[in-house]
């Protein structure tokens, strides 16, 4: 397993160096134009193939609507790991869970917070009969989940994990566990909406980002039962599955280093690895707060990109056996493309500097055309988010893309960066 | 699936198909052959003070490497040649073409773009060109110039 991960990790560097070499060669070689042209054509083919692939999956998703069995009051355990959360937000999250429909127990694990939530929450935890456990020092979210699952679970069938600032709709719990009544399903995730989407341009941009991530990509992956990440905001698992994988989960290492962040994606990976389907349930609606400053947002993105690389590599170690199409998607799109296009991204900036007319007359229109086609569903069904999408697209080219390259070199970094230490 | 949904998907796939076709045909399809003709105005060798690497057939006109590079960058991936007025007349007579002036290194050149799809061999034959002979002066991959005798005043 470690050797396979190392192989793929090195492969990413090879792709990056190859891409960079193509760019440099195209700049300094006499035969430059030919190379850059073939290079961009290869990317174009990948982009078109992936766009078709996504649309076909979305079509299948619409064509084969699955009617899940209705919820029949089965017991649900809702686990809320907490670390230095704003106490007012936490209180609202707890109330939303407590008042949501469903037969449930609530387990709150405080991961060594320094803002003394125990005092503040005492009354509310008693009122709603919440099981609580307070770590004396910070151990990490994985350990909080591990402790709750190994020590505090009651006689329950399903486990739902939510973030400490997640507000649930009243039907969210019962909707999210319904697919789990079918034998082949192991985990589910729900819709995440932003409470503060209208606050500023950055949150509007994230509103579009979340909408696309959920209603295009997760929905597409869901049609084949292979959603790659059950969001930390709201996710549900079959109890017997999560109990069987929880030790492997808490002990995850990446090249000898214990893993801390992106635990939601790893948990999903372990469910997929065991051959279960993972689906997106848009009717299970939750709400959360998005970062409101660029600095916070970039730190969050940096953490997610490290997790993206690490967990995508992990997916490649098992996916060929259980879901070959997932293997192909991860290898040829999710992992290869961000590094393969490095040279083209550099060429893009060079063209802006040296040949602005070429950029504005040729590259920019085709770039906008691709955005329109790839995110057509947002244009059709959530047009108020178009400005947010355009801001995101520009920010991606300017900053977010380059975080991938930085993340490749710092993938072992364990910093959570947005958790308040 | 409801009828409205079916129509919606039909529209989406038609749009995606059209986009894919236009993208592929633009990127991989036949390109018009562009022919750059040395303009008849304000063209002076004094403007090109780089290493002179190419001579025209009758050696009246010298082209600098800087000029060639500029021109090849402007029309990357296009095949080019520089023709004289007689050959331009032949083109005008036989093909639908447009003429467009552009500036390069302070000189005005005229771009002759052939709008109709043509066979390259037919074109060479019409202009009395021999690809092997006329290309030997300067050949880049996919970009080559035929250096004949442009009318320079």
Descriptive key words:
heterodimer, A: 421 residues, 8-stranded mixed β-sheet, two-stranded antiparallel ribbon, B: 153 residues, alpha+beta, 2 domains, 20% strand, disordered C terminus
Structure notes:
- Chain A has helices at residues 2-28, 32-63, 87-99, 117-127, 141-152, 172-177, 201-222, 239-250, 263-273, 294-322, 324-340, 342-354, 356-374, 376-381, 386-409, and strands at residues 76-82, 104-110, 131-134, 158-162, 167-168, 185-194, 234-238, 253-254, 257-258, 277-288.
- Chain A is an alpha/beta fold.
- Chain A has one domain: Spore Coat Polysaccharide Biosynthesis Protein SpsA, Chain A (Alpha-Beta Complex).
- In chain A, strands 3-2-1-4-7-6-10-5 form an 8-stranded mixed β-sheet, sandwiched between helices. Chain A has a two-stranded antiparallel ribbon with strand order 8-9.
- The two termini of chain A are 33 Å apart.
- Chain B is of the alpha+beta class and 153 residues long.
- Chain B folds into 2 domains: 1-29; 31-144, no CATH class.
- Helices cover 39% and strands 20% of the residues of chain B.
- Chain B contains 5 helices and 7 strands.
- In chain B, strands 1-5-4 form a 3-stranded antiparallel β-sheet. Chain B has a two-stranded antiparallel sheet with strand order 2-3. In chain B, strands 6-7 form a two-stranded antiparallel ribbon.
- The interface between A and B is medium-sized, with 18 and 20 residues.
